[in-house]
Amino acid sequence: MGNGVREGQVFQKDVEPVTSTHLPSEDNQEKKKVLNSLMSGALAGAVAKTAVAPLDRTKIMFQVSSKRFSAKEAYRLIYRTYLNEGFWSLWRGNSATMVRVIPYAAIQFCAHEEYKQLLGSYYGFQGKALTPFPRFIAGSLAGTTAAMLTYPLDMVRARMAVTPKEMYSNIVHVFIRISREEGLKTLYRGFTPTILGVIPYAGLSFFTYETLKKLHADHSGKLQPSPPERLLFGACAGLIGQSASYPLDVVRRRMQTAGVMGHTYSSILLTMQEIIREEGLIRGLYKGLSMNWVKGPIAVGISFTTFDLTQILLRKLQ
């Protein structure tokens, strides 16, 4: 019996360290989850944007000019750029895009995972799919968070896309010249239409993608869609999100590049009025949308698919 008591005492001492190491283990898991989201998001953004960079640059050049857009004119511009400046000039500004997109996508995807968790706890859906409204809110908050933290890089990227090499030699040079010649406030020109555009764009993109994945799981009985299905769901998400927010994207680009295009735009409404007066409602505010219907779904489809598959791979490796 005496031995039994001593054994029981030893057993109790052995239990204590297990309870004391429980919380640190949970903290480590949460840190790993956040790190995985950041890494997956960064890769997703880089792959998607590089894939569509020539189309993106062409779209911006039409958005900031008064030229009428057509598929034929877009092709001519791409071909002329290739002949005059070389093949790699089609990716001009992509280094600035990467500097912006990698942190933007990393923050957006990571924030989305965190907002989903927070809203799930708040609405009582912990561990389950969110209902439609919280699903939209999680996407909007994620996009807004990322845009607020990385906006000056978007401004720099737009400037590099519409100017010749001689004007800005690199990203740092853009920052220096804008700050010296136009003032630091210029780095945030177009910020308001960006945020107003990001709310429906990110909200609808994440909402559509998450909804299609849920519907697929409910009707097919499979927990995870295949990569081609993910690409399709992401393409639908990009099509809906970008179509809803496109006029504000045009306004944002005009305000960002006003300093080098010879215009002065003081507010969102005045910018819209001027565009409509000079170019018309559809031809002005929706200029380049048809190209976006090609570029957007490809980019968003690649982005969501890359994020999901990288997340799955990292979880397996750990």
UniProtKB/TrEMBL annotation:
<dbReference type="Pfam" id="PF00153">
    <property type="entry name" value="Mito_carr"/>
</dbReference>
<feature type="repeat" description="Solcar">
    <location>
        <begin position="130"/>
        <end position="215"/>
    </location>
</feature>
<protein>
    <recommendedName>
        <fullName>Mitochondrial coenzyme A transporter SLC25A42</fullName>
    </recommendedName>
</protein>
<keyword id="KW-0496">Mitochondrion</keyword>
<feature type="repeat" description="Solcar">
    <location>
        <begin position="225"/>
        <end position="313"/>
    </location>
</feature>
<keyword id="KW-0813">Transport</keyword>
<keyword id="KW-0999">Mitochondrion inner membrane</keyword>
<dbReference type="GO" id="GO:0055085">
    <property type="term" value="P:transmembrane transport"/>
</dbReference>
<comment type="function">
    <text>Mitochondrial carrier mediating the transport of coenzyme A (CoA) in mitochondria in exchange for intramitochondrial (deoxy)adenine nucleotides and adenosine 3',5'-diphosphate.</text>
</comment>
<dbReference type="InterPro" id="IPR023395">
    <property type="entry name" value="MCP_dom_sf"/>
</dbReference>
<dbReference type="InterPro" id="IPR018108">
    <property type="entry name" value="MCP_transmembrane"/>
</dbReference>
<feature type="repeat" description="Solcar">
    <location>
        <begin position="32"/>
        <end position="118"/>
    </location>
</feature>
<dbReference type="InterPro" id="IPR002167">
    <property type="entry name" value="GDC-like"/>
</dbReference>
<keyword id="KW-1133">Transmembrane helix</keyword>
<comment type="similarity">
    <text>Belongs to the mitochondrial carrier (TC 2.A.29) family.</text>
</comment>
<keyword id="KW-0812">Transmembrane</keyword>
<dbReference type="InterPro" id="IPR002067">
    <property type="entry name" value="MCP"/>
</dbReference>
<dbReference type="GO" id="GO:0005743">
    <property type="term" value="C:mitochondrial inner membrane"/>
</dbReference>
<keyword id="KW-0677">Repeat</keyword>
<keyword id="KW-0472">Membrane</keyword>
